[in-house]
Design brief:
Layout: E1 3-7, H1 11-21, E2 27-31, H2 34-43, E3 48-52, H3 60-67, E4 75-79, H4 84-92, E5 97-100, H5 105-123, E6 130-132, E7 135-138, E8 143-146, E9 149-152, H6 155-166, E10 172-173, H7 174-182, H8 192-206, E11 216-218, E12 222-224
Parallel strand pairs: 1-2, 1-3, 3-4, 4-5
Antiparallel strand pairs: 6-7, 7-8, 8-9, 10-12, 11-12
Helix pairs in contact: 2-3, 4-8, 6-7
Length: 226
């Protein structure tokens, strides 16, 4: 049985999400405090975190950043704000996916199952590491290497890079990258792909990668690796 850590200061929301997940065979740990949630993650085996943004004392953004300091557990952010600025912020600090409140039960279950399925496949080593020129994509640690340089990727960034680097000469349209990263029917705005690409470029640039030499934009079409 897989365990999902639910973090929200509203008990009603915790109970609702648990109601959706339990019939699907998930065990839920419910926590109203971000600080307490961090302690739970350090002690308990958790497969996924569903994290609310608007919480007192320590909001979801801060909790997400602190989780990424010691864990690569998948994180889905719950937010009442669906504007682009907050979406980019969430992706930039390490969130793997998001849902805007109020959300549909079916969409929640689809996102949870897709993330857990992919994460499980990678942990089992079903996919070999990918090497292309000086690049090395570590499919166990979700990291991209270029020579001695290294960048830790979020789950969504990992799948986007994996698609691009597996076929470096192919131009991927946004719909293809959306399908590669989400792996299920979704109502996610296709421009979310642009946010992931932008954050990925910033991350790689900060790590010293020569970003001008790869991850290029095919204007009006999509993206390619070189």
């Amino acid at each position: 049985m897989q365990t999902v850590l639910l973090v929200d200061d509203e008990q009603r929301m915790l109970d609702l999400v648990e109601l959706f997940l339990i019939p699907q065979g998930f065990e839920c740990i419910k926590e109203t405090s971000g600080k307490n949630a961090l302690e739970i993650l350090k002690k308990e085996k958790v497969n996924l975190v569903i994290l609310d943004v608007m919480m007192p004392e320590m909001d979801g953004w801060e909790v997400c950043k602190k989780i990424r300091e010691f864990s690569q557990v998948p994180i889905i952010m719950l937010t009442a704000r669906s504007d682009k600025q907050n979406l980019v912020k969430g992706l930039n600090i390490g969130a793997d996916d998001y849902l805007s409140k109020p959300f549909d039960e079916g969409e929640l279950i689809a996102r949870v199952n897709a993330i857990l399925r992919r994460f499980s496949e990678e942990e089992k080593g079903n996919n070999a590491n990918i090497v292309y020129n000086k690049f090395f994509l570590d499919t166990e640690k979700y990291s991209l290497h270029y020579g001695n340089l290294k960048a830790q990727l979020t789950l969504k960034e990992f799948y986007i890079v994996k698609a691009l680097i597996s076929r470096p000469s192919k131009i991927y349209i946004r719909e293809e990258l959306l399908n590669a990263a989400w792996d299920y029917e979704t109502e996610t705005d296709i421009r979310t792909v642009d946010s992931h690409i932008r954050n990925l470029r910033d991350k790689l640039k900060k790590a010293g990668f020569p970003t001008n030499e790869f991850l290029k934009t095919a204007w009006g079409i999509g993206y390619k690796w070189n």
